[in-house]
Amino acid sequence: MRLVRTLSALALSAVAVVTGGALASAAPLAVNYAALGDSYAAGVGTAGSYDNSCDRNAKSYPSLWASAHSVSNFTFVACSGAKTSDVINNQVGSLSSANTVVTVTIGGNDAGFTSVMGSCILGGDSGCRTAVDNATNFVNNSLPGLLDNTYRAIRSHAPNATVYVLGYPRFYQLGGSCSVGLSDTSRGLINGGADSLDSVISAAAGRAGFRFVDVRSNFTSHGICSSSWWINSVSWPVVNSYHPNASGYASGYLPALSSATG
């Protein structure tokens, strides 16, 4: 009987060791998160005023995701007005081999987002078509190389991270009446430009081995001129114009990123 008790004790000890090891291995890994990009990553569109030169704020999708996932370290360097060159020159230096997750939204400013909207508002359908066509030509022919360089820089500085590239929403809900001054023709042209931009960004992300996060379906029925806007039209302060509002980041961007990251 003593031998049986001894063997039983040894068996229980072995089970405890194995179980303890399994529990230890199942413990969640620390998340070291860095957020790069432009105003869409910074969270522009949500605040009446901003307390830093980059317009970063707590209602941005990176801040919301970091809070929801209890990250161990959060580096937030996205900046309003940033282009691909700014990510390379001013943002990737904040990355390191310790990063496990990196997000980025970039490319809209390279494509002349602000000037396109100005042309569409002031130039009518003809001016809008010319502006969108010029921007789309740049997006298709020049932006891919700029994105490739940017994504290589991100990978070089954060070799161990899973990188998520978030795109841009379509701005407008087409059809019906809307008092923002643009025709459905111009609204459709602008939406088509957003689709071209997302297509090129998605392809570049794929070449880099990054994951593209498409937010467009989340914004369906919530564009400008819908019954429930998640994107600002012309707003005050002006910087908020044509950016998601708080609902856009919380209900559009955050669920898309959370779904992608699991």
User: What is the quaternary state of this protein?
Assistant: single chain
CATH class: Alpha Beta
Number of DSSP helical runs: 8
Write the element-wise H/E pattern from the N-terminal end onward. HEHHEHEHHEHEH
Sheet having the most strands: 5 strands, parallel
| Residue share in helix | 40-55%
Low-pLDDT segments:
1-27
Structural class: alpha/beta
Q: Remind me, CATH topology?
A: Rossmann fold
Number of domains: 1
- DSSP, total strands: 5
Overall geometry comes to globular
Instruction: Calculate Rg over CA atoms.
Output: 23 Å
Keywords:
SGNH hydrolase-type esterase domain-containing protein, 262 residues, disulfide bond, 5-stranded parallel beta sheet, alpha/beta, disordered N terminus, SGNH_hydro, Rossmann fold
List the helices and strands and how they pair.
Elements: H1 2-26, E1 32-37, H2 39-42, H3 61-68, E2 73-76, H4 84-91, E3 101-105, H5 113-141, H6 143-157, E4 162-166, H7 184-208, E5 211-213, H8 246-261
Parallel strand pairs: 1-2, 1-3, 3-4, 4-5
Structure description:
- With 262 residues, this protein is α/β, with parallel strands linked by helices.
- The chain has one domain: 3-Layer(aba) Sandwich (Rossmann fold), CATH 3.40.50.
- Helix content is 50%, strand content 9%.
- The chain contains eight helices and five strands, in the order H-E-H-H-E-H-E-H-H-E-H-E-H.
- The chain has helices at residues 2-26, 39-42, 61-68, 84-91, 113-141, 143-157, 184-208, 246-261, and strands at residues 32-37, 73-76, 101-105, 162-166, 211-213.
- Strands 2-1-3-4-5 form a five-stranded parallel β-sheet, sandwiched between helices.
- Helix 3 packs across helix 8 (246-261) and helix 4 runs parallel beside helix 6.
- The chain is globular and about 50 Å long.
